[in-house]
TrEMBL record:
Domain VTT: 71-185
Signal peptide range in chain numbering: none
Keywords for this protein: Cell membrane, Membrane, Transmembrane, Transmembrane helix
UniProt-recorded name of the protein: TVP38/TMEM64 family membrane protein
Top-rank taxon, per record: Bacteria
Species: Desulfoprunum benzoelyticum
Amino acid sequence: MTDRENNRKGAALVKMVVLLIFIGAAVYLVRYSPARQYLTAEQLGQVLESAGLWAPLIFVIIYVVGVCLFLPGTLLTALGAAIFGPYRGFLYVWTGAMIGAGLAFLIGRYLGRDFAASLIGDRLKRFDDAIERNGFATVLYLRLMYFPFTPMNFGMGLTKVRFWDYMSGTALGILVGTFIFTFFVGTLRDVWATGRWEELLSWKVYLSVTLFVASFFIPKLLKMIKKEESAYGR
């Protein structure tokens, strides 16, 4: 083994250690440190409500940072829907999620990919190559399966999947779930704000619930389509 290879492996190890420290520090900050008392829906909501016209931008920034620090996505998504309503909430949530997902992917790619590649054997290399060839479909499928959002962002950075395949698969894959969740929470927010409780029986609520339930059948439908394509390809 040459000195150059040793230096390369050493640098890859150092980067991986930095990534692990970053992830550990993020989890500690959000879950166990005194700072967690400021990362509640109530505290963040107060910040956004006092931000005026800057509230959308600040929310997107909070979402991006939250994604990278392992802050629960459901908390941020519900907060966006509750503050901005179903439609603007969806736009801001989706924007923040996309930027955060891309940033977390790049962190994982820069700090962890070299070390992960050095550990890959022949069997894992075939798997890694398959992800590269089918990156968009793989990412889309996992997003539709509601695979944990933030771990997947960092984890995909360790694979050979292309950045734009990852981003496009994420953009489409989280579209349905994000819209359904923000639409439902935003509708409840509107009902609470107006005090018209009879609207809980409105078409909006029925539609959001129906879409949410239907979204769980998307992975099964994709499996059926994949099986049919395989059968025709024989």
